[in-house]
Amino acid sequence: MRTYLFYDIETTGLNKAFDQVLRFAAIRTDLQLNEIERHEISVRLRPDVVMSPRALITHQISIAEAHQGHVEYEATQRIHQLLNTPDTISVGYNSLGFDDEFLRFSFHRNLLPPYTHQYNNGCGRMDMLPFAVIYRLYKEEVLRWPTHEGKPSLKLELINELNDLTQGRSHDAMADVEATVALAALFRNETAVWEFLAGYFDKKVDAARMSDLTVAFQTASGNHLKGLLVSSDVGSDLGYQAPVLFIGNSIPYSNQGLWLRIDQPELQQVTPDSIEENTWAVRKRLGEPPFILPPRKRFLNHFSSERLEIVKSNLVWIVENDLLFQKVIAFHQAFRYPEIPNIDEDAALYQMGFLTKAEEKYCQRFHTAPVSEKATLVDGFQRNEISTLASRILYRNYLENLPERLHPGFATYMEKVHPEQQTSAMVDYRGTYRTTPTDALKEIEVLTKDPSIDAHQQHLLQELADHIQKQFFVTK
Fold it and tell me: Which residue in 93, 100, 232, 271 is deepest, having the highest Cβ count within 10 Å?
């Protein structure tokens, strides 16, 4: 039976490569949203993780609470199993923008297949945030829509509060899951809209819809389809919508279609040397947001006449400047994400590439071995990066059972976690430094002077400061 697994996570911070899950909550339902089962998993704070002070005052999971639960390695295996249960559609709110990729890195560093929950054994993914955008624009009567500081807001906590979806505290994982299920139930009452939007998460349906879009014109690069991109990333000021033109597929990433924004006046100022600054190409994979709608009149009601004139003028300019347009296409098609030369193994998911069958088999052997035997398998991996990740599993989860020969490696690793200089910190896939203990203490000092921080949050911050001092500085 096909099921939805609505889920949410609370984490130590926003860095998907270096932070960790603290709470995982999920509700499994049938396709009519009838509840089947619930799961709550508490994950123990790892000895090497520096919790973000801002994350702490948001989810308010104390240091004492964070030291309860399962070690990350075992908790991540349970989460991986839930998402990979055959015929499971995993669903969250902004899950494809954050939670899904966060879990992908969790799977990576724990030597579990990072992508199988997206396609294997009938599994798939959906996200209620793109649903909310469409309903907000075209079916707004389904609920009351909040504003924040005078602007429309799609924050789940504000939608929940205004519509009384659940009674739990926001940023509590299970409460947020309950709110997401309740929101989905309201959306599903509009059956035709629900089924239409669900189709965008099916690669075949999405591809068929793309092929049905109108051809604006044709150049040497092929047919240029015209569509209306709908995404929260466009922003409320522009009504979450942007007219786009298909300019082909990426060459290095063949699963990414490229859609050029044609509502920006700076497009006509582009030169061969300013393509990156003056053009914006959105990358879309089939079966994933953003949604591309046909630019029908009923979908254009949120556009000002001035913005529509810019689109019309840009299309004329493109046709009249075909040579320059071809350079724009070539630039975006050839674009590669930069390789990070000193990337840390935890963050190297995209640079390491897929594991070979032999590596997958050896990982499975590592997983099934008793803890007492895992250390003997660490040096048997074909690649040093994977061996490093296996060693870190032992450091982070089974330190009390660590063989003497691995102690120097653990000491070296902890020096990377707590470097003398911030510029020596670990680097993630975006070239961002890992938060160091010193960084966190400086941030705590700033936050404790903020008058908006209440007494309970102040207490939590002091506990975190004490923990960081004890964990990283006492033995430094």
Answer: 93
- Residue 108 phi/psi, 5-degree rounding, is -60, -50
**What is the identity of the amino acid at 446?**
V
Using DSSP's 3-state secondary structure scheme, residue 135 falls into: helix
Tell me if 468 sits within 8 A of 441, measured CB to CB. Answer: yes
Q: How far apart are CA 174 and CA 39, in angstroms?
A: 9
DSSP 3-state of 151 = strand
* Dist CA 132 CA 184 (whole Å): 9
Per DSSP, 88 falls in state E
What pLDDT band is residue 475 in, cutting at 50, 70 and 90? low
Q: Say if residue 290 is preceded by a cis peptide, omega within 30 of 0.
A: yes
Token pair for residue 253? 């990433």
What does the block give as tokens for 354? 């897929």
Q: What is the pLDDT of residues 41-51, one digit of tens each?
A: 999 999 999 99
| Closest-CA residue to 197 (of 91, 331, 110) | 91
Extract the tokens encoding 329.
Answer: 């296409």
Bridge partners (DSSP) of residue 4 are: 29, 89
Give the C-alpha separation, 185 to 54, whole Å: 32
**Tokens matching residue 65:** 């609470």
pLDDT tens for each residue of 2-14? 999 999 999 999 9
Which residue, among 35, 56, 28, 17, has the nearest Cα to 345 in the 3D structure?
A: 17
Distance, CA of 41 to CA of 55 (rounded, Å): 18
Residue among 140, 37, 154 at smallest CA distance from 88: 37
Task: Supply φ then ψ for residue 271, to 5 degrees.
Answer: -130, 170
Q: Is the pLDDT of residue 474 over 90?
A: no
Among candidate residues 264, 353, 343, 342, the one with its CA nearest the CA of residue 309: 264
Q: Answer for the pair 71, 397: CB distance below 8 angstroms, yes or no.
A: yes
How far from the centroid of its chain's Cα atoms is residue 25's Cα? 17
> What's the 3-state SS for 327-372?
HHHHHHHHCCCCCCCCECHHHCHHHHCCCCHHHHHHHHHHHHCCHH
Tens of pLDDT, residues 362-393:
999 999 999 989 999 999 999 999 999 999 99
**Sheet strands (E) in 153-240:** 215-219, 222-230
In DSSP terms, 119 is beta-bridged to: none
| Secondary structure class of 8 (helix, strand, coil) | strand
Residues 76/41, Cβ–Cβ less than 8 Å: no
Closest listed residue to residue 48, CA positions, set 71, 69, 31, 27: 71
Q: How many residues does the chain have?
A: 476
pLDDT of res. 298: 84
* Cα distance between residue 415 and residue 424, in whole Å: 10
pLDDT at residue 21, as a whole number: 98
Structure tokens given for 379: 């040096």
- What is the model's pTM? 0.95
